[in-house]
Design brief:
This protein is mainly β. 0% of the residues lie in helices and 55% in strands. It is built from no helices and 28 strands. It has a four-stranded antiparallel beta sheet with strand order 3-2-1-28, with no helix packed on it. The chain has a four-stranded antiparallel beta sheet with strand order 4-5-6-7, with no helix packed on it. A four-stranded antiparallel beta sheet has the order 8-9-10-11, with no helix packed on it. It starts with 5 loop residues before the first strand and ends in a 9-residue tail after the last strand.
């Protein structure tokens, strides 16, 4: 058995999700960190519309890790799974997400945060030591809107990120990062009107947060104070080499080393940015072509001399592709490896040290 293979779980849209898709649920994929090769491992769990996945690293031990999947439907739910040592998933149960059309889930310690797009509700749930879902501890609605009439008619919670002791929620509908501390709403960071914040990534220091603006096709920089739980918008840059609001829709954003990466649907590229001025300024370095409508991507870190890679999910291209990150420039390049997966929308790496690849 080759121990080099790494495990990825891939969320998809399914025939019974909203929107519907062709996926089978949570797909299992094996990744070779030396070459970037991707191998189909079959459907690991059949569950409706697992459009976003999260790993619970708290639930280590004999029972393995836990994986959480939103079930993106009008009456939203979130489902928990235990990851066994042979890379199989066993369902631990599901609970209502607290709102409609859940599109993002965040696991932090013994708590789970679920973002519901349709009505903007954010629900917090307890987690048991083995990763199973407990009671909902808090549910936060919101009000407001924005200038883009067909997308910002009301609040739309799109993702959550843990920054220090606070959880930030990107609200695409109200152009805000909503701020929560445990079971309380404590404020908001206001972004430019019409930005449409979708996803966020914090710098390792926690002093900067980078936000993909889905509606204005820009990457926004927020200066964050972890001690006070407050932040301010300090600038933005186009999400690709060109201004493209209305034709390009940024999605995932990730900080990796001294680089910030953003996937762009429409331009269908992964953009690479250098970080300057203590994190306040981004410099565009390159746009690397991806498949059609790259919804999400993840960085797979290399170990024992292996290079870092990026695996991207081309939702409309029904495929995954791998990119090798140049260790000098940080700019990714296509490895040429592809894997057909129907309607892939999220890629989740699982630590290899506790997983054995099935023959």
């Amino acid at each position: 058995m080759d121990q080099r293979w790494r495990l990825l779980f891939v969320g998809t849209y399914t025939p019974d999700s909203d929107p519907p898709g062709k996926g089978g649920g949570v797909h299992r994929v094996w990744f070779d960190p030396a070459t970037g090769e991707l191998t189909d491992g079959g459907v690991a769990a059949r569950t409706p519309g697992p459009s976003f996945l999260a790993l619970n690293t708290m639930a280590e031990g004999a029972q393995g890790y836990a994986v959480y999947a939103v079930n993106e439907r009008a009456e939203g739910t979130v489902t928990a799974f235990r990851v066994a040592g042979d890379a199989t998933l066993t369902e631990l149960g599901s609970v209502p997400s607290g709102g409609g059309s859940p599109c993002h889930v965040l696991a932090r310690g013994s708590e789970l945060a679920v973002s519901n797009y349709a009505d903007g509700v954010v629900g917090f749930h307890d987690l048991a030591p083995d990763g199973a879902l407990g009671e909902r501890t808090a549910r936060f609605g919101h009000t407001g809107g924005g200038p883009v009439a067909d997308r910002q008619e009301g609040p739309h919670a799109h993702s959550a990120a843990c920054v220090g002791d606070h959880v930030l929620v990107a609200d695409l509908g109200t152009d805000e990062l909503r701020v929560y501390s445990r079971d309380s709403a404590v404020g908001a960071v206001v972004l430019p009107s019409g930005a449409g914040p979708r996803h966020m990534a914090a710098a390792p220091s926690g002093a900067r947060v980078y936000v993909s603006g889905e509606l204005d096709s820009r990457v926004h920089v927020v200066r964050w104070n972890p001690a006070t739980g407050t932040g301010e918008h300090v600038g933005s840059v186009p999400a690709t080499a060109e201004e493209a609001a209305g034709t390009n829709f940024p999605a995932e954003v990730t900080v990796h080393g001294e680089r910030v990466y953003v996937s762009n649907r429409g331009a269908d590229v992964l953009s690479t940015f250098a970080v300057h001025d203590g994190g306040d300024r981004l410099e565009h370095l390159a746009d690397t072509p991806l498949g059609a409508w790259p919804r999400h991507f993840t960085v797979v870190r290399g170990h024992h001399g292996d290079p870092d890679h990026i695996v991207a999910a081309a939702q409309n291209g029904d495929s995954l592709m791998s990119l090798r990150v140049d260790p000098g420039t940080g700019i990714p390049a296509d490895t040429g490896h592809r894997l057909a997966v129907p309607d892939p929308v999220c890629v989740l790496p699982v630590p290899i040290k506790r997983i054995q690849r099935s023959e």
